Amino acid sequence: MSEIQRLCVYCASSPGTNAAITTAARRLGELMVAEGIELVYGGGTVGLMGLVADTVMAGGGAVTGVIPTRLFPREIPHRGLTHLVEVGSMHERKTTMFELSDAFIALPGGFGTLEEVAEVTTWAQLGIHDKPIGLLDVDGYYGALLAWLDRAVRDGLLRPENRALLLHADEPAAMLAALRAYAPRTKGRQWLDLGET
Q1: Distance (Å, rounded) from C-alpha 85 to C-alpha 114?
Q2: Does domain 6-180 have CATH number 3.40.50.450?
Q3: What is the DSSP letter of 70?
Q4: Rounded CA gap, 119 and 116, in Å?
Q5: CA angle in degrees (0–180, nearest 5) for 181-60-109
Q6: What is the per-residue DSSP string for 166-186?
Q7: What are the Cα distances from residue 142, in Å, to 18, 21, 107, 108?
Q8: pLDDT in tens, 23-61
Q9: Euclidean distance between CA atoms 5 and 3, whole angstroms
Q10: Which of 78, 89, 147, 196 is surrounded by the most beta carbons within 10 Å?
Q11: Which of the 8 DSSP states describes residue 31?
């Protein structure tokens, strides 16, 4: 079982047009507050990022945002957070978010969300960490990606045990439950220093 005190949420800096996704983002924030889980995210005030952060803060929860200074004009840093960490690069942002978090969820998003969840899952595959990672598959958003991963297993390009590193659920409560139920695979593994990647 995984203890989750701080949860990193990857998501879009756009609000999108699907009401089911915004509803799920808001519900995730509400559940985090109810369960005493702090939010770690990209630090912006716009889009789904801002919605999750505002929901957690409105409920009295703690929020840490991590944002590169050069993205201020695009993502608009959220000045009302518990903590706002300004960093120099996207790499530093991702590393800082990783170090601060006990688990990771990707809400629907675009290239940035996909890249972030793929990288943190690759780090798990390499044995750099053993923290739980999940896709919140709202309204079937990640269905094609999950099918592609299953195809990769069938074609011998991805090991089943590595495919199992990326959990998924279609609603926030089930996603949090899956993250908590995750059993780390630490026995007999060699851990790499994050700087070696």
Answers
A1: 22
A2: yes
A3: G
A4: 5
A5: 60
A6: EEEESSHHHHHHHHHH-----
A7: 14, 12, 9, 8
A8: 999 999 999 999 999 999 999 899 999 999 999 999 999
A9: 6
A10: 78
A11: H
Cβ proximity of 42 and 66 under 8 Å? yes
Our CA angle for 123, 9, 173, nearest 5°, is: 110
For 95-127, the pLDDT digits (tens) are: 999 999 999 999 999 999 999 999 999 999 999
Instruction: Collapse the DSSP code of 184 into the 3-class scheme (helix H, G, I; strand E, B; otherwise coil) and give the result.
Output: coil
Distance CA 55, CA 71 (A): 23
Q: Are 166 and 121 in contact (CB under 8 A)?
A: yes
SS3 101: coil
Q: Which amino acid is at 127?
A: G
Could you give phi then psi for residue 175, rounded to 5 degrees?
Answer: -65, -45
Question: Quick one: DSSP state of residue 60?
Answer: T
Query: Structure tokens of 108?
Result: 């629907």
> Residue 55 and residue 53: Cα distance in Å, rounded?
5
Cα–Cα distances in Å, from 26 out to 40, 130, 192?
15, 27, 36
Which residue type sits at 17? T
134 bridge partner residues: 105, 167
